[in-house]
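Lab manual, section 2.4: Encoding a predicted structure.

Procedure: take the sequence of the chain (832 residues), apply the prediction step described in section 2.3, and record the output as structure tokens. A sample record is shown.
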Amino acid sequence: MTSENLFKQYLTEAIYRIKALEDKSIKEIQHELGESIGKKGSLIEHWRKGNLPHSVEDLETIAAVIHQKTNRSREWMTDFLLAGNHLAPRSFLNNLYTPSFSEILSLPTEKLPKMAALPTGSIMTLAPNQLFVGRSQTVLDIANHFTDHEAPLSHQHQIVTLCGLGGIGKTQLASEFVHRYGQYFAGGVFWINFEEPESIAQQVAKCGGPGALNLAPNFFALSLESQLQMVRSSWQKTTPRLIIFDNCEEQELLEEWRPASGGCRILMTSRRSEWDTALNVKLIPMPVLYRHESVALLSRLLELEQPSNHPVLDQIAHEIGDLPLALHMAGRYLKRYQRTISPEMYLEWLKKEPSIQHDSMSLGGLSPTRHVQNIRRTFALSYDQLDSKLEEDQYAQTVLIRAAQFAPGEPIWVELLAKTINADEDEQSHLLKIDRGFSRLLELGLVEVDQQSMLRMHRLVAQFVRELNPKEVERTKTIIQSVVLAEASRVNAEGLPLPLLDWHVHLRSIVDLHEMSHDVHHIRLCNEIGEHFKQVEDFRGAIPYFKQAVMMSDALNEPLSLEKAKSYHNYGFVLREMTQMDRAYSYLSDALNARLIICKKVHPATAESYNELGRWYLRKGRLSEAEGHFRDALAIAEKILPEKHALKADFMNNLGMCLAIQKKANEGFGFIQSAFDMRKALFGVNHPRTVLSFNNMGYVLRDLEKYEVSKSYYEEALDINLTIFGEIHPKTAVSLINLGDVKIKLKAHEEAKVDLNRAQDIYVVMQDGKHLNVANINFNLGVIAEDESNLDEAMTFFGQALHIRQSKLGHAHPQTVRTKKRLQQVIKKRAS
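Recorded output:
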């Protein structure tokens, strides 16, 4: 690369870095640089086109401005000056670069260094822990934050804080960093415990005495104030030192004791995860261990050379939430009683009762970090700081008790949590108080937030909170269920299930099927939760809730009700989708009969029942009966529903598809087109119901041999499904199968194979290799193989499709008969 082009590259890179840091336009930056040398910005643009500065003075001035704004490294600046034909940059750079916080320390940031002795004069109370596992990347992250030369000085962090729940391993990780990286801090390592604030001054003063910094003869004969002044003065020198502020929870304490300047780096541990931005603290949230790390820790504690009990240790780690302190205590307990208690026995105990209640969680004994070896007491250190007399802490306790009833360890929408708390004042004031309570919990480390500002609570903390507040938990259980019911109803009615995907695990947790009473409230709750799983096509997930709704409805021994008919209808729906056709028919027909009695014939619910029974007949291949039911549903809708209504669109769509399957494509197209237009008007384009119409438009256009137009509809459906549901979802698979099918018609076999194999992969990931759509995939792959005269391959594909269709649809179903004929055709070809 020529010198001119190289200079152009460096100058452009610098301008864009300034733009990112200062949020200014390129034009503004060019003018600022131009003005620094008494020229207009057009000159900078002239240089960016590959021309070089004529004056060394201009080049040095521009370099100084870039250094001030971006703090680029000396190496980068050297290359920039040389590219600009500055022949002797060293003396200029010596003046430009003076020793600073960002330049006096170099730490390995790619690979962990080996442990080594600490510099003379260090004060470190904790020895290396041979049981330490995992978290290598976090240790490297600390080093990176301490040596981020690329960031401007104002963006660099002198203070890095490991924050998180008590027992998460913050102090242990800080100790690990000290023993690996302390060797690089020439001025020494100094460990200060902030657990007892009144002792901090004495600990800091000790850093200046004999055996440490040794700042003066007879140092300890001086007044405490003089000792502290000398230590602080020493800490503000440019010599790199590492100071640990362990268990620092108060912002005022940090502000009081941190060095105002100099070469010190501070590594802090704290439960608190919110700090004033003025303190310029870099937070590193501490998660629980990864499962393989948990198993490795238990194996070390049990002194297993080969973790033969890997599955059991894995389950033990799950029950105690991969919390390092709990793992340490569980491992020590099993080691102590290894002659009488096996890991299998211990696991059974943990499953029978809350893990936090087991004796192993309150063992006491030695700790590598000298911290409390009792889970309850560890959490109580935070919980006991809540003062029920303070409004902020009252809200914090309320939030905590509500959150403890959701699925532990899973993200909770704060807005959803807020709805479970009754408000006596206006909504804004109510939300503000909840937010303050939430912040209080973050300060105490009892909860954490993820990048989407969603709250998480560790399973052991949830057990701890429920154990302390049993009456309040029982009192609020129905409130929480009611909020979940209302929210699920709202989202289900919109037909966009994605908002529930992030918290559907909470639906399972909050609704304990074994504890439900046989009342209408719980029947509705089960139906709404089942409806959510149905909308995302998780029919296995929906089955237990719809089944429970049916059982509770039957147990009421009351006359028929709409809720009971709805329970039958929903259960029949998912049984049909699971191809349990006989049972599905029984429940769907019972639902229709009940609605005919309760609502009479002309009612939306009755129309829905006709429609779903029509889909049952369609699935069975009984097309004339299916058509009759769809026409009955549409006739009812025409009488009582508005001109544009979601149900009417459903009935039109299904009737159109039924006609198209009967080779009445022209008649069917009119209904499908009307349903499509109605859905676009009601929901817009990017909605699951509208996507169904895209697919069905593609289907009928394919039957009308308008293959290119059909393909465009299928492609649109695929794009929307990918956006809504992602790569691994049944709806995405259906779009891929449809695309593959029409591409076969277009003789684009290779493209079709790609689409069909992508769809096949989705069902492999979902572990649903016997789904009817898998039969459709194999049938289409068989068609391609036969067209390409790969008859052995075609036989395999048709055989696999036939096996699935026979088992799911029966031997007499049209699709089964068609597949059998195609297979026989290939067998004859192969024999001839």
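Check your result against the sample. The radius of gyration is 35 Å.
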